[in-house]
Protein backbone atom coordinates (compact mmCIF):
# COMPACT_ATOMS: atom_id res chain seq x y z
CA UNK A 1 0.00 0.00 0.00
CA UNK A 2 2.87 2.38 0.72
CA UNK A 3 4.26 1.67 -2.77
CA UNK A 4 1.15 3.19 -4.37
CA UNK A 5 1.66 6.63 -2.77
CA UNK A 6 2.87 9.02 -5.53
CA UNK A 7 2.51 12.40 -3.77
CA UNK A 8 5.26 14.23 -1.93
CA UNK A 9 8.98 14.74 -2.30
CA UNK A 10 10.40 13.54 -5.60
CA UNK A 11 14.05 13.57 -4.55
CA UNK A 12 15.03 16.76 -6.44
CA UNK A 13 15.17 19.94 -4.32
CA UNK A 14 13.69 23.05 -5.91
CA UNK A 15 16.57 25.35 -4.89
CA UNK A 16 20.02 23.91 -5.26
CA UNK A 17 22.47 24.62 -2.48
CA UNK A 18 25.05 27.30 -3.17
CA UNK A 19 28.56 26.89 -1.90
CA UNK A 20 30.72 29.47 -0.25
CA UNK A 21 32.44 30.21 -3.55
CA UNK A 22 29.14 31.14 -5.18
CA UNK A 23 28.22 33.34 -2.22
CA UNK A 24 31.64 35.02 -2.24
CA UNK A 25 31.34 35.64 -5.97
CA UNK A 26 27.90 37.21 -5.54
CA UNK A 27 29.20 39.40 -2.71
CA UNK A 28 32.24 40.50 -4.71
CA UNK A 29 30.11 41.46 -7.69
CA UNK A 30 27.76 43.45 -5.44
CA UNK A 31 30.70 45.32 -3.90
CA UNK A 32 32.11 46.06 -7.37
CA UNK A 33 28.74 47.48 -8.46
CA UNK A 34 28.56 49.71 -5.38
CA UNK A 35 32.13 50.96 -5.84
CA UNK A 36 31.40 51.72 -9.48
CA UNK A 37 28.26 53.64 -8.47
CA UNK A 38 30.17 55.71 -5.89
CA UNK A 39 32.96 56.41 -8.38
CA UNK A 40 30.45 57.53 -11.00
CA UNK A 41 28.71 59.80 -8.50
CA UNK A 42 32.03 61.30 -7.42
CA UNK A 43 33.02 61.89 -11.04
CA UNK A 44 29.71 63.61 -11.79
CA UNK A 45 29.87 65.79 -8.66
CA UNK A 46 33.58 66.35 -8.09
CA UNK A 47 33.24 69.51 -5.98
CA UNK A 48 30.81 67.87 -3.58
CA UNK A 49 32.95 64.74 -3.31
CA UNK A 50 36.11 66.72 -2.56
CA UNK A 51 34.25 68.82 0.02
CA UNK A 52 33.01 65.68 1.76
CA UNK A 53 36.51 64.18 1.82
CA UNK A 54 38.06 67.38 3.19
CA UNK A 55 35.27 67.67 5.79
CA UNK A 56 35.82 64.11 6.98
CA UNK A 57 39.57 64.77 7.17
CA UNK A 58 39.08 67.93 9.27
CA UNK A 59 36.66 66.11 11.57
CA UNK A 60 39.05 63.17 12.02
CA UNK A 61 41.99 65.50 12.70
CA UNK A 62 39.94 67.45 15.27
CA UNK A 63 38.85 64.32 17.11
CA UNK A 64 42.43 63.02 17.14
CA UNK A 65 43.76 66.34 18.40
CA UNK A 66 41.19 66.52 21.20
CA UNK A 67 41.83 62.93 22.27
CA UNK A 68 45.58 63.57 22.22
CA UNK A 69 45.22 66.70 24.35
CA UNK A 70 43.16 64.82 26.92
CA UNK A 71 45.77 62.09 27.29
CA UNK A 72 48.53 64.56 28.28
CA UNK A 73 49.14 64.96 31.98
CA UNK A 74 47.83 68.20 33.47
CA UNK A 75 51.10 68.87 35.31
CA UNK A 76 53.42 71.11 33.28
CA UNK A 77 56.47 70.69 35.50
CA UNK A 78 59.38 68.48 34.50
CA UNK A 79 60.27 65.77 36.95
TrEMBL record:
The chain crosses the membrane at residues 49-68. Residues 1-27 are annotated as: Disordered. Residues 1-13 have a biased composition (Polar residues). Keywords: Membrane, Transmembrane, Transmembrane helix. The keyword Transmembrane applies. This is CsbD family protein. The lineage of its organism: Bacteria, Pseudomonadati, Pseudomonadota, Alphaproteobacteria, Hyphomicrobiales.
Amino acid sequence: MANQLNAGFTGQPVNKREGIRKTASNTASAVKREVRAVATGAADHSHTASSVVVGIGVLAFSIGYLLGRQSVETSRFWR
